[in-house]
Amino acid sequence: MRRAVVITGAAGGIGQALCERARADGYLAIGIDLRPSPVSDISYELDLRDSANVIRLSHQISEEFELKAVIHNAAAQPIGGAGQTPIAEWTDILRTNVIAVDALLSATIHNLASNEGSVVAISSVHARATTGGLTAYAATKAALEGWVRSAALDLGPKIRVNAVSPGAIDTAKLREGFQRWEGASVEDRMAALRSRTALERIGSPSDVAAAVSFLISEEATFISGTVITVDGGATARLGSE
């Protein structure tokens, strides 16, 4: 049986790249998103805030496929500073950004363990170094990395758990985030990001997919509980200099 990779947020820019890379690596790409994924082999439309349905679908997938990996890429990124995010929205963001991966795992854990599988969470550089106006996003990404560390201890040696932390990746979500800088054009913001990155370019979704491909491969069998940063060297820069 062809082994499968489950990818959340499969309809977005990074999600599509993850699906394409999984297929290129010989896996069946199973996409989960609010809307159909155009490049996954199988696409499920699901709201990840609904934990009961996440678990139900995960049980179904686990019964039908041999799983190589669960890749949690979906994320909500609201614009709002400290004290500006309604409590109900905080709950939704936590369910999407953090709780969903635990729900997915709860129903697939035995399948992954029997296939020497792994979990990869797509975090963000905002988990460790951020800007104003992204409080809920930064906080939940930091929580996600905490989950990765703890889950790696809980699930080893059968299942490896890691994260990839992207910096500026050229996606629609990146451009939407520019809204917190009023009056700045997209071109100006992209130029500013390039100037602050050691490699002087914005990342592509395929850069993230390549890191994930490595982490779920046989070449990474002694890697667990870690975060690989894919940011072109941006976070190497000392902000006060």
TrEMBL record:
Keywords: Oxidoreductase. GO terms for molecular function: oxidoreductase activity. It comes from the Bacteria. InterPro entries: NAD(P)-bd_dom_sf (IPR036291), Sc_DH/Rdtase_CS (IPR020904), SDR_fam (IPR002347). CDD domains: SDR_c (cd05233). Pfam families: adh_short_C2. Belongs to the short-chain dehydrogenases/reductases (SDR) family. This is 3-oxoacyl-ACP reductase. It comes from Mycolicibacterium psychrotolerans.
